[in-house]
Structures are given as structure tokens and as C-alpha cells.
Amino acid sequence: MSFSPLIQDLIDAFRVLPGVGPKTAQRMAFHLLERDRQGANTLSAALTLAADKVGHCACCRTLSENELCEICADNRRDETQICVLESPVDMLAIEQTGGFNGGYFVLMGHLSPIDGVGPDDLGLDQLFKRLESGTVKEMILATNPTVEGEATAHFIAEQIKHLDIRVTRIAHGVPVGGELEYVDGGTLAHAMAGRRAMN
Amino acid sequence: MSYQVEAQAAYVLHTRPYRETSLLVDLFTLEQGKVSVVVKGARSPRSRMRAMMQPFTPLQINLRGRHELKTLLQAEAVAAPVFLKGDALICGLYVNELLERLLQPADPHPHLYVFYQYVLNELLAATDIELALRTFEQKLLQQLGFQFDVQACQPEAIYRYEPSRGFISVRQLSDALKPLCFSGDQLIGIVAEEYHRPEIRRAAKRLMRLALETQLGNRPLRSRELLQGYRPKG
């Protein structure tokens, strides 16, 4: 049995979501149509609005419906520090720690030559312009501790060598509450190499 | 019939996300050459595979599968990962990009595997990266069945490099031809790997680039752009 075209379209539309296969898509579609028409309307209105209005912050490139995102627009933030990240979710993670009060720059990815992702795709000219304006005193490179993330961090640091900006890289280490025995060799080697004096 | 490989030495060349929590990984293995595998659950937060499926980590792996895309059953790091830093890291990505682009799936190159280990060690030591890269490029071309034939070359003569025909003697050197031309002395030096001579190094860089370009077709290597530094477009 095949569904009528409108239902089939709805099922196919749900499949764009990550982790949603044909069966889940079908369940979602029928739930909305059978039990929750109100929810379906709210969902569709929210989707349309978000897809139309959400763009990138002109300053840090994170997702935002305003010209400047909330953090960039906030004048209580410390403009002399800037934290460079791979994705908006990373920004959320750092914000939740509450330990950082500077600005951000979101690359929306990392350099990956084999996938064809180069400096132009990460908005680096925008980052360099912001650094060249002179307000930033420290740049914290918080790209992921993967080979590509490391390469991205190195590449950015290399390009701004001529500027008088302190460039730092987030530390690698053992997770809080972890046991050394179960930590993978790579992390442990990094943690040993990046050890700190206690006296 | 199921096909299984056990305790194979391998390095990760490249990974990309697959489905919700898995990875598609291209491996360079000692006995099978380049192999693509699915690593199930590698992207879930608690996966032990996550840290291992990084380039430049020497692994020992078990695989299964009948088709071109295999399933990774097990992987173990046999030594500490090679932590490349700075330009050596970008050069490592360049070497991986070369292998990713030029090796055919399931075409074994055990000699090249050894040279790959050599180049990684040299990149780690970072004493003479250029020498290591030139040596590796020449070995790679040789393994792909691409020899530089310089037997007929005279040291004083000038030769033009023609990818399909080899080295052709040139009488009159014009400016347009210059980037394609080498002296016989340079060519003999390159094949003999006399990289301690600076002019041989420069010529080797040029020759390898020309030879690799023909193999790569018209899609340039992206990692090379990274080494040349950033120049905004427009």
C-alpha cells in the first residue's frame, strides 16, 4: 500500500533529519496527523520562520536571527579575548561553563584538504579583519583536538604571526573524575607533555 | 563466503561521518593497500575508537567484509600516535592527501607502507622535512609504475619533461618552456637522490610537482594551498 501524495511528501520531508529513517519518519508523520494537528501547525510555523530568518552573526559567524548575536551585542563582554571554535554547539558548551567572558568566532568546520574544505570556507578573512582592528589581545584556539582541528589551529596562528596578539591553544588532558588506567594513550601522552609545575 | 583479515598493520588516511554515530574511514594497510571501512559507533561519546581513528596513529586492525567497503571489527594502537606539529602536520596531511588521491582501492603497496612510516618519522623529527617529502614523492611515483628514465640523458644537455613520453632533448630554450625544462645533470641528480645539493632539491620539487600533477588530473591538491599560506580571493 502506498500513502497519498501529501502524506508521502511529509514522510519524505522528515527524513532530512539526522537519525530518522523511513520507519521513524512514518511514525512522526502519523503522530502529527492523527493526534496533534496543533503541534503540527506550530512546528511548521516555527520551521518556516527559523529557516527564513536565522542567518549568521556578522561578527562571530554563529547562528543568529539578528545582525549581531546576543554575545557580540553584549557590551559587558571582554573584547580583548576571542575564542575560536568549530561549531555553534561548542560555543554553547563553553558558555555553560561560565568561565569565559570574551568574544567568540565560529569557523563552522575545520580545514580538511581531502574533503576540499579550505581557508575560504571558514570565513578566515573575516576573523583576520577582526584581529587586525587591534582590540583583540588574546586569541584562544579551541578547535577540536583532532588532527584536522590541530592543523586548523596551527594554520590560523601562522597567519597572524605579524600581529601583536597572544595566541593560546586549549589544553588536552584527563577528564574530571576519570581514572588514568582507562584514558586512551593519545590523551595521556598529551597530558604528560602538557604537565604543569606545582611549586 | 565471508572474508576476514586479522592483525593487519594500518594507518588512518581520512575519516568522514557516516550515519548518526559511525565513521567511514580510509585506511592505508600494509598488505591490502588502501581499504575503506565502516567503524560502527565510533562517533558516540564513549567510543574508544574515537581517539584511535585519527591519522598518523599506527594501528593493528581486524576487518571483515566481501565488498569494497569493509567493516572494522577491532583496532588497537600498537604505538603512541605520531604527534605532528606546525608545518610538519600540514605536510603530513599533504602526504595523506597524495595517498588518498593516487592509490587505487585494494591495490597492495607494502614497500610504500614502509616509506610512509619513514616519512612520518622524518616529519616528527622535523630536521629535514623537504628531503623526506621529495624522497617519498619519488618512491610513490615509482610504486605507481612511474619511473624517471634518465639513462640516455647527457649532463650538459637540456631536456623538456613530457608526462607521456619522458624527457625530450631541447635545442632552443625559450622563457615559455623554462618551467618544463631540466638539465641532464639535474635529472641524473634527482634519480640518484643527491638532495644535499640545493639546485637538485629545487629541480626535484619542480619535477615531482609536474609528474604528480599529471597523475592527479586537474583537481589541485588542497593541502598545498595551506602550505603556501593564506591569500584571500578577490
TrEMBL record, chain A:
Example GO molecular function: DNA binding
Segments forming domain Toprim: 80-175
Top-level division of the source organism's lineage: Bacteria
One GO-annotated biological process of the protein: DNA repair
Pfam family, one: RecR_HhH
Xref: Gene3D superfamilies: 3.40.1360.10, 6.10.250.240, RecR Domain 1
Zinc finger (C4-type): 57-72
Protein name per its UniProtKB record: Recombination protein RecR
Its job: May play a role in DNA repair. It seems to be involved in an RecBC-independent recombinational process of DNA repair. It may act with RecF and RecO.
Record keywords: DNA damage, DNA recombination, DNA repair, Metal-binding, Zinc, Zinc-finger
Automatic annotation (TrEMBL), chain B:
Domain DNA replication/recombination mediator RecO N-terminal residue range list: 8-79
GO BP annotation list: DNA recombination; double-strand break repair
GO CC, alphabetical: bacterial nucleoid
Domain of life: Bacteria
Entry keyword DNA damage: yes
Entry function: Involved in DNA repair and RecF pathway recombination.
Name of protein: DNA repair protein RecO
Lineage of source species: Bacteria, Pseudomonadati, Pseudomonadota, Gammaproteobacteria, Oceanospirillales
